[in-house]
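Deviations from the work plan: none for this task. Representative record:
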Amino acid sequence: MSRARVIVADDDVLLREGLSSLLERADFEVLAQAGDASELIELVRGHEPEVVLVDIRMPPGYSTEGLVAAHVIREEFPETGILVLSAYAEVAHAMELLAGGRRVGYLLKSRIVDVGEFIETVERIAGGGCVVDPALVSELLRAQRAEDPLAELTSREREVLALMAEGRSNAGIGRLLWVTEGTVEKHVNSILRKLRLPDSGDDHRRVLAAIAFLNAA
Amino acid sequence: VTAVRSVVERYYDAFNARDWDAWAALLDEAVEITIEGDTLVGPEAAYAYTAETINHFPGMRYAVERVVAESSDMVVMECRLVNPAGDWSADAWKLDGPVCQIYQVSDERIVAIRGYYSPSAIDRTPVAEVPSRADATRISEERAALQRVTTLVADGAPPAALFAAVTEEAGRLLGGDLAGMIRFESDETIVAVATWSAAGEHLDVSGRWPLDADRLATTIRNSGLPVREDSWADVGGPIADFIREELQVRSSVGSPIIVERQVWGALFIHSKQSASLPDGTELRLGQFTRLVATVMANVQAQADLRRLAEEQAALRRVAELVAHESSAERVFAAVAGEVGTLLGVNSSAVLRFDDDDTLTVLAAWGEPDMARQIGRRLPISGDNTAALVLETGRPARMDDQSTATGTIAAIVRELGITSTISCPVIVNGRPWGAIAVNSLQPEPLPPDTEQRVAQFTELVATAIANVQARADLTASRARIVAASDEARRRVERNLHDGVQQRLISLSLAVRGAQTMLPGAPESPDLRQQLSRVAQGLVDVLDDLRELSRGLHPAILSEAGLDPALRALARRSSVPIRLYLNVDGRLHEPIEVAAYYVISETLANVAKHAQATSVDIRAETSDHRLDLTIQDNGIGGADPNRGSGLTGLSDRINALGGTIVIASPSGQGTEVRVTLPMPTGS
């Protein structure tokens, strides 16, 4: 398999360089680095990378420029994977990103530090998966609810739901929980039935549905 | 105000207890006591009079019925005189009915007392000796005439009717052809208040007559003594010409009407006959003028009282508006209306001087359709009272508009205004604007108008200063709130974009260093150490994320109240039900205030309420945002305790909003907040 081609966008040069060398060491090919959203979009148009890593907050407004850039890239290059990095976990941002389509990830910036996990995340996006930061999922699951629809779930089902929402495939969940994919499938079906979620048979839609459900509950 | 009243109450108490030391201690050394026109000066004279009264009515005491009116140095009391002996007559004196007393107090001492009996309650007419039958007839006629007038007064006839009756009775009784009663105005003019003619019609004498043109009237006013003119032939001046030529009067007698030691006016009898009016006319006329004086003292006191009460009520209404933090516009509108109504003028206006030599009509009241003038900006230059006020800083009057120049004068003429007065509103030592009153009547505005308007200008100035201070205060609170919000935002940004970013870079550097170490077994310690550093950095990053949570939520400025409140609700330890009906993005300070109200309230709920659920409602409608936070906890929260709630009130008040906290014990706590939204946000 050829090396996955990536572009990194962050206004902090130090972090951008660190991230790039980390990716290089993990055998990604870093095509270019961008310091802001418009530079990123230009570079993506020129290089057509497989994955883009983009900081959500960049010049000029230091608001959600990364998210806006992700939309543009998604429109023009639907096959490009996009990993949005954020200093803090915000459900609304994750929802917006997920709603845009598959091959996306929303991750806390500090996850970079856990190199192995981080590289795996980028690989999952390159491979067509989607990723939601565990901190965000756990915040959604932990929220106190007056009428909690999650009360019906077993603790195992909650674990599975969390991993579903993080964007794991059944196989991935099985590996993490040390159970067979068949067992995971049974849990997933039970969860979908209890929460009255549609069975889309698609990881990305499953994530979107799970997050939307948790956010609305 | 209550201090003034308490002095007077102690005075009554001392009198009733016959505690003369305490009684005298409440009287100023120069106290002036006026009873029915008689004036006593000093505590000793007061004591002599009081001792005399008690001598006649031993058990007599005062019972306060009510406080009629009060100000910072005056109080008007209505009392009953209680006499356990039951006999109210002694030595041709009768003492009965309600007594009205006006006290003036300075430094906890009474400096003046004016007392009045109601007309029905006093009868001090001495029983006269009757010398002859002719005299008896005359005296009985006179007494009958006086009795008719007294009855009129007792029936509460208005002063004008009294003047007319007295003038007619005197004219008939004293055999005059004409009679007239005049009043001296404070501006050296005379006004005829009643006229009578034996032949029926009296020539029109309405309007103001300059005092210096009338020798007879001037003499009366200056001397306070009766006057006589047996031949008008030699007297010069416009009034004398009028009396001689138009009224065809040959001789006249005048008697002063003295009210409270002031020559209030005079009563004249005129004869067209060749023989002069008989000797003794002065004395007989004097009976009528004394009756008028006595009644006028009462009438004036009652008019004073009514005026004082009306003025106070008007001032109080305006003051209440100011106290209830009404808008300046409402205060000005109220002032224009109150001044106009109280003074009985045709129109009034509140004007503000602007920097560019124009004035703005802030409020206007009266006819013809003065409301149309509101909001007009007019150049000040020209002949008008506002220009005079701006120039001199003093009240100004114009009784003739016919030759005045300038835009304002043109408008004044167009409105049909004849007489106009403006009084300055002084704010911070400068003429800020003016209150103007206008008349459409042929006669000029009364001479005391300036003085009466001035009372309101002070109030308006206070109101403006208050409104300004309040606006400044609100603005400065808003600035403080905005500055602290900005500080929080900056810290949040610095943490996320600065510190956190650098920590991540450092971590990456450590990881890089780890990979560069040769896999040789000789450096396991170093490898371990680096690993510990890396893990330590991860922990710091986690701590940092927790820390930054309480700071300004970035999502609020990025995406608005809805997602920010959802995030807040998710992190609450008490389950939350959200009912959000917020239309898009709101004005930023409103969003921030709403967010902090809810986050602070939720923190309080978690700490004190022992609640198991909280309902949060947020709804925008009609230029306002309504928030309700209701928990099902133990209630009994004290809004005055805890700086958190105080801080919230400040934040809400700075935006002109309201916060109401209801926390009945055992029934949960409800916080209701309404925030006005600027239009167009």
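Residues 157 and 190 of chain A are 8 Å apart (CA to CA).
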